[in-house]
Amino acid sequence: MNEPKQYEQELWRAVEILKSGGTILYPTDTIWGIGCDATNFEAVENVYKIKHRVESKSLIILLDEVSKLYDYVEKVPDISIDLINSLNKPTTIIYSNAKNLSPNVIATDGSIAIRVTKDPFCRDLIKLLGKPIVSTSANISGDPSPVIYRDVHEDILNGVDYVVNLYQSRVNSSKPSTIIRLFENGEFIIVRN
């Protein structure tokens, strides 16, 4: 268990890095992730470079509250609120017509993948930053996603600006979040289960 003082220190240090346009390696509600301010073009660009990932593959962003969806999506279908509130496992929903985000975090069709996280550290981080954060698996593109901290590749560790020193022995999930593609008419398909 992490001490409350260490938790606070790590939280504030990570927020400081994010506010300055930096990248972090951090524990999420699924696997270890690389994060940055999702509204900062250069920071998002650096995440693609760290992962050796082509920019045509969009990224997932995290929000701390359902109500903030309306700040980043033109039209939030009612069913999305029901889905978020009813699903117990971490679920990312792809929405049409993203707004107020860095263009390079949005897919070429204008959609954005958003997960409203229930993880306390991620929620606190987003709340203090006051903006959504990128959450992409902490791996080189094409490599397996790291379930625990010790599986994170050295290139990732050296590529980010800060490594959050919390929960490094914790195992949250053996896989990334479920992804659902939601259409404005309320229909949806499961992209990744």
Tally of discrete structural domains: 1
Counted by DSSP, the helix tally is: 6
| Rg, alpha carbons | 16 Å
Instruction: Report the helical percentage.
Output: 25-40%
In CATH terms, what is the architecture? Alpha-Beta Complex
CATH topology: DHBP synthase
Helix/strand-derived category reads alpha/beta
Oligomer: single chain
Question: Kindly state the mean pLDDT as a whole number?
Answer: 89
Q: Strand order of the main beta sheet, please? A: 6-3-5-4-9-10
The end-to-end span amounts to: 31 Å
**CATH class, anyone?**
Alpha Beta
Kindly estimate the percentage of residues that lie in beta strands according to DSSP: 15-25%
**Silhouette:** globular
Poorly predicted sequence stretches spanning 5 or more consecutive residues: none
The H-and-E topology, N to C, reads as HEEHEHHEEHEEHEEE
Give a written overview of the molecule.
This protein is of the alpha/beta class. The strands form two sheets. It has a six-stranded mixed β-sheet with strand order 6-3-5-4-9-10. Strands 7-2-1-8 form a four-stranded mixed β-sheet, covered by helices on one side. Helices cover 29% and strands 20% of the residues. The protein is built from six helices and ten strands. The chain has one domain: DHBP synthase (Alpha-Beta Complex), CATH 3.90.870.10. 40% of the residues are buried.
